[in-house]
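Teaching assistant's notes for section 4

Start the section by putting this record on the projector. Ask students to predict, before seeing the second block, whether Integrase will look compact or extended. Collect guesses on the board.
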Amino acid sequence: MSNQLDNEDLAQAINRPLEEEAKEAASAEFHELLDFSHGDLDGDSGSLLAKIEDDPTLSFRTSDQSSYNDNRWLYATRSGEKVIVTFTSRLAGGNELYKQLIYHLIPEFHPYGKVRSYRSTRTYSYACDYLDWYLLSPNGLDATPESIRTITVPMINRALDMARDEGIYRHYSFLYFILAFWISLSAQKLISRELRLDIPLNKVVTKARQKSVQEKVAAETQGWKPYTEGELSSMVEYALFWTEEAMPTLMEIRDFIVESLSVHKVGFLVRSKPDLEIEEMLGKKVKGVTVCGYETRPTKAKITSSSGRELEYDYIAYTWKNNYRVALDNVMQGILVLFSLITGLRSSELAELDFDDITQSGDGEYTVNVVRFKTSNDPNYFGEPDAIPLPDFLGEIITQFKQLREVEVHMRTRKVFYCAKGGKVASIMARSIQKSMKRIGEVTGIDGVHPHRFRKTIAEMLINRSERNIDVIRMLFGHRSYKMTLRYIARNPYIISSVAEAIETHYAQDFINLVSAVQGGGYSGSAAERIAAKSAEKPLLFKGKLLRMTIYNYIAYLIEAGEPVFIKRASVGVYCVSNDEYSADQLPPCLEGKCLSDGPIQPDTSNCKLDCKNAVVLSDAKGELEKNISFYRGLLDGGPGMLSRLSRREIERQIKINEVHLSNLGNTKCFGKASVVAGDVVQ
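Reveal the predicted structure now:
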């Protein structure tokens, strides 16, 4: 009984952070809806009405590649990813209305200054369809001015209720967003008069409606979304520029400041003529980017001579400290990107790190000592200490960054992720992390940058082993072999937990089927035997809420063994569960004789072979197995003289394979089942 309670406590300890993250992700998504849909005007929002007035042909640009009158607006992100926003409404006046709305979701023209990513523009542009589906068409309206004038608050509330009750992912929250956005743009006179929706915002954005939408978002949100390949590329490129390419130059600038400028406590220098040494050293560039810089201000000084004459001199005042702080923050933010990817720490844990927490052992390995916090009702709970390995290159970068920060005026705190430009040390360092994440989003053009998304991204990369993913993982974790990298990652409980969560998200029902089959013995296949053997060590973990614990243990076991993770449904009742690394000389049956592309080799589940050691066959496959046997026997009976000896042998082998699996499914023993290896039955 005690052992069962221990296991349940352990399961709750793993479940709780995942549930907290899902709530936090849902809250962030809901507040993004609010931030994007309405607020105070943030300067010039693009002056759409002025542009329309100046150019009635509507040929002014909405991007470098597109004009306003185009029905496809094309954008390129910093990473080179193409983003296309299309206008294909068949409603009268639809495209005219939708263009005026979506124009204000372009980062450069968002009136509230919150949208930073063209990907967000595209995502939220889909909300226009919901105006048609739930508000306009059901009321016999189109998007012409005459129809818009007839829209009432009850119509809007009925549309929102219909979208809520329909239960389709994001329809309710996105309809709520686009309506609030349309009303806000109308009230602030940012769109054409005839397209304005004359409805008070407080009639739609009510407390009850906000609560309802927030609950719906929470129900739909499974957790933080991983970054796209383009988003990750942009952030890693930004991080590596400041931590690797700019770092040597910044170290030179740091030495110059210490040797030549640190004695000037007031923060500025006065020279009677340009100081070429200061300008050369502080103005150094890397790839055309000034990594530190300085400011100059011409000044005049009046001096009265001994003879009483008033003399005027021209001076140049040099300031550099604020520029140096900005450079420090760029390096810190680059480290924050890499650190979040590699360690998977939460905001609260990142915020508490100081330079003394990063240590180097006698054999040269770097470790970060962290206090891991979990939800607890115990007022005396102060977290649990843990040690997570760091790749050598990241440990060396942090050591250099510490030296940059040790310039006298900038070491106000030993917290690693302190914002130098802010001046004062934040009383709540987690807010400093949030501000840094926001700035990373601003410079890379990405919305919703958050530490949890980094951990989720690494988990997804470990599951989806594209060639690019493996290259990025090798780079991040020190250019080790993939197998060694997995063993290295296995020492990090944060990432293992995220991989387990991602596996559960992608393959939840599939894994439940596998686990249930293993528990009840209703399975066939060597891969299922491997799961059963490993799981038999803790049989109680197959029950109810302990299922997530089982997934966690299984994934941790695979990663610790340096084995890749591949779980995919092949056909009804048949799954591929592979943790092998394949080469051209060692292929699974599904790939034999196929032309292989460059990059990591993964099983082809569309060509699954039941004699493969990675095939897991469950009871749902019984009907198909019986059909296969009938089909093959029909071939043998139908043409005894038509088949070659080789063909007959292969058909008999297929019958045997299907019979073995069918027999195993009827055998409820969890061990000792017959297995099929290249057509041979092994007891």
